[in-house]
Design goal:
This protein has four helices and 30 strands. It is mostly beta strands and about 525 residues long.
Length: about 525
């Protein structure tokens, strides 16, 4: 039987003096702050979930009526974790440089009772407990996460609810993330997960939490559920996050992909309702696959480890009513002052690379301070005739804050435009990121992504790197091959082969928090 490290630490941690108020300032993370730093769900090894750092499409959603419904009796939960230090089978987990068999990961996630600090010294994991909304809660100091004994659900109708009070959130980083084959690349396995995370999908890139981002690589759907209020709920304050999947499956006409209708509640009140006809929602069967199913809190295979409090995690295999969600909220006290001891080390805030001394010689795409957001600036669109190859050379500059802050290659069927809104005939064969992650109708499950990146130095290697990019039109498929010469002279190779195309083929370059000097 596995040793339950979480419970074993109980006796030591319960006698600790909890001294520092949760209102004390932690080290803040910058935009897309990820120790990974790949997308939420990279084949890069995500973002991405992470993969993917693309903001969702806009859709018209009716505003929730608001207010707390009348309380109703709660059914028996499938899982309930009090997070109070009792023996609940919870394990402590750390990120490891050895990704093991996880072909889509930047880190491995392994059970451990110790972690290695910034000086290379091994330190014991200390789980702390404090007053929470309901009894005691758990505090995670940013050095470890938790694994909960949860199995795959045999239903598209479920409810997930938990109290969160974060000291630190990172874009696309995890609070609760659960699913199957989460650390695998799409080409090797069907990747399915739900991640309750932070994004910059608000107005003028405002940060939003919580965002329920989920995916099913088998169907290619990447829907989301969040309160579009440009706000962070649950940072330096308690918030009850409740996700209800109704089980109703509908098809979204704009992309032809199925979704499960869903509701998001904050502190018991309805904040978002994704029903038939909306972009948002949940991926069907996202929690039903049993392959390598995991339920993690505060840690995943790519991003910064969570720092903060968590309490009262419930999982139901049914959709709770408004009144039952209200009852979950009324059981707790969101105004409790939770106190925990400061972590042994303070994580330094990453700093973006300074490009003020860079001299460009060609056509520049993107702001030279690396402030350009995702899908906002593009190079010229170039045709790739059938049976031919086209090569472009450019220098890639990055903020250095995340793996996906680099160039992207877009393969499409029409010149100039980059969305179906601008041209109803627009088709996106695939989008390929520098950090070995791609998506699109022709990419999912077909293209093979290969690279020989050194992920430990990737962000610095890509700054000032000379890229020779070749796109080949094979008729019914396309290949994208990059030969990348780093500033230190090291040469790396990356390729996406077998991207399905249908008819004309064009390519362009875009970027995120980077800029390109095209020769």
């Amino acid at each position: 039987m596995k040793k339950k490290i979480f419970a074993a630490l109980l006796s030591a941690t319960m006698v600790m003096s909890l001294m520092t108020a949760c209102g004390s300032e932690p080290a803040e993370q910058p935009t897309d702050e990820s120790t990974q730093e790949s997308s939420v769900e990279p084949s890069s090894v995500e973002p991405s979930s992470s993969e993917e750092s693309s903001a969702p499409e806009e859709s018209v959603v009716d505003e929730p009526a608001g207010g707390l419904a009348d309380a109703e009796a709660l059914p028996e939960a499938l899982y309930h974790f009090a997070m109070d230090g009792s023996d609940e089978g919870i394990l402590t987990m750390i990120q490891s440089e050895d990704v093991g068999s996880n072909t889509g990961a930047t880190y491995g996630v392994v059970e451990s009772s110790t972690y290695v600090d910034k000086d290379g010294a091994e330190q014991p994991i200390v789980v702390q407990y404090a007053d929470g909304p309901v009894g005691k809660c758990t505090y995670i100091d940013g050095n470890f996460g938790l694994k909960l004994p949860v199995e795959a659900l045999n239903t598209n109708e479920y409810t997930i609810s938990l109290w969160v009070n974060a000291d630190r959130l990172s874009n696309y980083g995890p609070t609760l993330q659960l699913g199957s084959d989460m650390g695998m690349a799409d080409t090797d396995a069907t990747v399915k997960w739900i991640n309750i995370t932070q994004t910059e999908w608000g107005t003028s890139s405002a940060k939003i939490f919580p965002v329920v981002w989920d995916r099913n690589s088998e169907t290619g759907v990447w829907p989301w559920v969040y309160a579009a209020d440009d706000s962070i709920h649950g940072k330096k304050e308690w918030v009850l996050v409740t996700l209800v999947a109704t089980g109703d499956v509908y098809n979204f006409a704009d992309d032809g992909l199925d979704r499960v209708a869903a509701k998001l509640y904050l502190n018991g009140e309805l904040a978002f309702d994704a029903a038939e006809g909306t972009y948002g929602g949940l991926a069907p069967d996202v929690l039903t696959a049993e392959d390598n199913f995991e339920c993690l809190f505060g840690i995943n295979y790519w991003d910064s480890v969570y720092k903060g409090f968590v309490d009262e995690l419930y999982i139901y295999d049914q959709a709770l009513t408004d009144g039952q969600v209200a009852s979950l909220f009324l059981e707790g006290n969101p105004n409790v002052e939770s106190v925990a001891e400061a972590p042994a080390e303070v994580e330094a805030e990453p700093v973006a690379i300074d490009h003020s001394g860079v001299t460009t010689t060609g056509t520049v795409v993107g702001a030279t301070d690396c402030s350009t957001g995702f899908w906002s600036e593009f190079s010229d669109v170039v045709e790739v005739p059938s049976g031919e190859s086209v090569t472009v050379n450019f220098t890639n500059y990055t903020s250095g804050l995340a793996n996906w802050h680099n160039f992207l290659v877009v393969l499409q069927n029409v010149p100039e435009v980059h969305s179906a809104d601008a041209n109803a005939d627009y088709k996106e064969y695939g989008v390929m990121r520098a950090d070995n992650f791609g998506w699109g109708a022709g990419y999912e499950g077909i293209a093979t992504a290969e690279c020989d990146w050194d992920w430990g130095t990737f962000t610095t290697d890509m700054d000032g790197a000379q890229v020779e990019l070749t796109i080949t039109n094979n008729g019914d498929t396309a290949d994208v091959v990059a030969v990348v010469t780093c500033a230190n002279g090291t040469v790396h190779n990356q390729s996406y082969t077998g991207v399905a195309v249908d008819g004309d083929l064009y390519y362009c370059l875009t970027l995120e928090n980077a800029f390109l000097d095209i020769q």
